[in-house]
Amino acid sequence: MRRRLPVIVVAAFLGACAGPMVRPSVAPVAPKREALLVLPGFGYGRAAGKIFRTLAPAAAAEGVDLYVAPFVTRTGLASSRDKLARFIRDNRLERYERVHVFAFIAGAWTFNPLVDRGTLPNLATVVYDRSPFQERAPRIAVSRLPVLAWIRYGMTIFDVAKTPYAAFTGSDVKVAIVVESAPTSFVRRYEAEARKYGPFAFTCDSFQQRHDDCLYVAMNHDEIYERFAEIWPELLAFARSGRFSVAADRNPPVDDALARGRRR
After folding, report:
1. Domain with 172 in it: what CATH number?
2. pTM of the full predicted structure?
3. What is the pLDDT of residues 81-113, one digit of tens each?
4. What span, in angstroms and rounded, lies between the C-alpha atoms of 86 and 108?
């Protein structure tokens, strides 16, 4: 049973197989519409793909066409970046009046250097999903479970683990951060390893990313995928005004959820 445990744990971290592409089923009349490009990461699977497909009609009713790009490759961040660039080009996102991006963690590591090259000149807003907990998961996986991590994701997870975050610096694009305040079961299991990398910082400025607004959600990384429809109204508000709604929680947690879990 002990020998099987690492396999079970890494499966929980790595999630399902790569999820499906999502895009409008009918070619849109794009010049008068907007697009939301979602950049998922290592946790994106078929179940999450169904959630995004369910959300697509509601977004379309607001004049926003939803695209989800499963861009993560096995051969590293550079090839993942090339695949994302092809997705943007093949779907002709330059046709839209405005494009909005929601980037999960691996998405941010892939997208920022790409957009700094001038990709997506019609980019209007970027919202980053950030987590003091989950951003340590790749480092934990390659340190504690390197063979299993490589089998599932190849070199890309190793690249993310060793690559510092490169902030998006464009001044003419509105930027926001959604901060996860709960850890996944994988991070809970490897709490001691996660704490080796220093204290968990939840303040918006700690993510080293220029931002116009920032909110906190009482969700872990898996739940962001599962409950993405709950975040959508805030994404729409930010796309429309450059600010989240007045109901958004802008107060960081007073302590980390891992410590709270031990006190129960």
Report:
1. 3.40.50.1820
2. 0.91
3. 999 999 999 999 999 999 999 999 999 999 999
4. 17
